[in-house]
């Protein structure tokens, strides 16, 4: 089968755990992260993230970004509530609104250098293929491809390849796999271990029955021959964590760029 992998979609999530933005292009930071991805995070009084792992109410928050990420519109799913905030000048008001919503003290933290990645050893963009999303969605009758995309929240979506093609981007030995999107050098590191978040509806937080159990069984059954099985101490893993060398800082990813593995 002749493959023509290319970058189909780019997503960033400016506020960790909240809605993302579909971009035509994205700039690489010196840290290897995408500019503005997970730049902000909601922090509680103990300094811990307020996210879907710890608070299911976050699933009901909708956010839209305007004016170069700084101006946001917040609303609550299923209500007419909608309010605008500026992430600089309106931060105190935003924190007050979020404190009331979550019923606990909330601060908005910011990191423009690395953002707030889940994997601190592989803080580049996460990668998944369209075919993988389609396959995963087919395992759950009431979960659409778009809904699966929202649940998994990958940054880069690859098309022109079969399901789980991205499993080629990590090795048995743990040595990174070097590949390029356009002229940008990226290193695949490891399969992404999933948490409780994908088990829930992205808009209301309702849990899909037996999601994790079915996912694990089907992932094991459909593991392609190119997958490094020793990297799976369990099968609740999908998408790839990456690093991008500092030498690539300032380069720009574009939708449609071709992908090649060294």
Automatic annotation (TrEMBL):
Pfam families: MOSC, MOSC_N. SUPFAM superfamilies: MOSC N-terminal domain-like, PK beta-barrel domain-like. Residues 91-262 form the MOSC domain. GO terms for molecular function: catalytic activity; molybdenum ion binding; pyridoxal phosphate binding. InterPro entries: MoCF_Sase_C, MOCOS_middle, Pyrv_Knase-like_insert_dom_sf. PROSITE patterns: MOSC. This is MOSC domain protein beta barrel domain protein. It comes from Gloeothece citriformis (strain PCC 7424) (Cyanothece sp. (strain PCC 7424)). The lineage of its organism: Bacteria, Bacillati, Cyanobacteriota, Cyanophyceae, Oscillatoriophycideae.
